[in-house]
UniProtKB/TrEMBL annotation:
Official protein name in the record: M13 family peptidase
Superkingdom field: Eukaryota
Organism annotation: Amblyomma americanum (Lone star tick)
Assigned protein family: Belongs to the peptidase M13 family.
Domain Peptidase M13 C-terminal: 282-366
Length: 385
């Protein structure tokens, strides 16, 4: 309420209450669209590539091409009806189309304003900030901590640059890359020696593995001493009397424009990572067939340079193997390897694979290992939650 008054101080109580009620209702309905998507069991199969023209033909209520071109014209990019986009997921798009048919445009624009206010209002007004903190049930933290949190959330490249340059080591990067190569060699040997897959399937497995890229540490170019200057070359000069909000807005706008420009750039998986360098979890991208092992993960207890190789294989090696295995599990067969591979696995190979899986479950599924008396698993789980 205080946030709304900040924007329109002259508004009366009745209008204010109506505005808040309608914005809240709109937000709940919009959030409900995502909830329905998350509970859909076949979500992975709903991710698809489709042309903008096809989407507009099937969902005529959303002028997608016009809306996208309004944004991309800011960086001199023009899209056409033949432009292909990756849709994740079609269920959400269907729900959104139906939702917009019954939406009052005023509610939509008001809600958009509320979202902008929620993003910037806490930094603009102490009154708004106090109102948000009270609504979230939080105490105001020290200002420098809040600034760091904002940097992490909105200026990821800057934080990654500082983090990696403070601690990077080519020896660590080389050793983990070697560990990844050894694990991939083990996968390759397993595929070639297996007895449950026919020759055609084995060849496809090996081809997929050979095309899998493993990125370790950080994107190419992050250690360039001029990395930050190149990123923010379009940002207006920062003066001594510039406010934090003004600087933050200019840098956020620069980041958004860079994201738009990427559409005309050829994709480079070594340069354009999905994960942040400071992340502490490896990530496999099915779309790019790329495994990312970020720099933030390469620290104890997962990894420490100088220890025997067996430690690396049992820790960071196990982590890499677990992520890599996702590309070759049962779900990977159907959703990640392509239609022609999916068809080849519907017959004998799939049957043999399921038999092998069931045999493993039958042998080990009922094994129970009693933990020491001092390990209270239930309490540990509650603490983690």
């Amino acid at each position: 309420m205080k946030a709304a008054v900040f924007i329109r101080p002259e508004v009366n109580a009745t209008k204010l209450q109506e505005f808040i009620s309608r914005a809240a209702t709109y937000g709940k309905k919009l959030k409900g669209l995502n909830v329905r998507v998350r509970v859909h069991k076949d979500r992975a199969e709903e991710v698809r590539r489709v042309s903008i023209g096809e989407l507009q033909k099937n969902f005529s209520k959303i002028p997608l091409l016009h809306l996208l071109n309004q944004e991309f014209q800011k960086v001199n990019i023009t899209l056409t009806a033949e432009t292909v986009v990756l849709l994740n997921t079609i269920i959400f798009y269907q729900n959104l189309s139906s939702f917009l048919e019954t939406t009052d445009p005023i509610d939509m624009f008001n809600y958009a304003g509320v979202r902008v206010l929620a993003r910037m209002g806490e930094q603009v007004s102490k009154t708004v900030r106090e109102a948000f903190l009270k609504a979230k049930g939080k105490q105001e933290q020290e200002r420098w901590k809040e600034c760091i949190d904002i940097m992490r959330a909105n200026l990821q490249e800057v934080m990654d640059y500082l983090y990696v340059n403070h601690s990077h080591s080519t020896l660590v990067k080389d050793e983990v890359e070697d560990t990844a190569r050894r694990i991939m060699d083990a996968f390759r040997g397993m595929f070639l020696e297996n007895s449950w897959a026919d020759n055609e399937t084995t060849l496809m497995l090996v081809e997929k593995l050979n095309s899998t890229r493993v990125n370790v540490g950080y994107p190419d170019g992050l250690l360039d001493p001029y990395f930050i200057e190149k990123l923010f070359k379009d940002v207006p000069p920062i003066e001594l009397n510039s406010t934090f909000v003004e600087i933050f807005h200019n840098m956020s706008h620069s980041y958004y424009m860079r994201q738009l420009k990427k559409l005309n750039e050829s994709f480079n998986p070594q340069k354009n990572w999905t994960s942040r360098a400071s992340a502490v979890k490896s990530f496999y991208s099915a779309q790019d067939n790329t495994l990312e092992v970020p720099w933030g993960l390469l620290q104890p207890p997962v990894y420490q340079y100088g220890l025997p190789r067996s430690f690396s294989l049992g820790a960071i090696g196990a982590n890499i193997a677990q992520e890599l295995a996702q590309a070759f599990g049962k779900k990977g067969f159907f959703n990640r390897l392509g239609e022609e591979y999916k068809d080849s696995l519907r017959n004998r190979t799939l049957h043999e694979f399921e038999n092998k899986t069931q045999c493993f479950v039958g042998q080990y599924g009922k094994i129970f290992v009693k933990l020491p008396w001092y390990c209270d698993v239930e309490s540990l789980c509650k603490k983690k939650q």
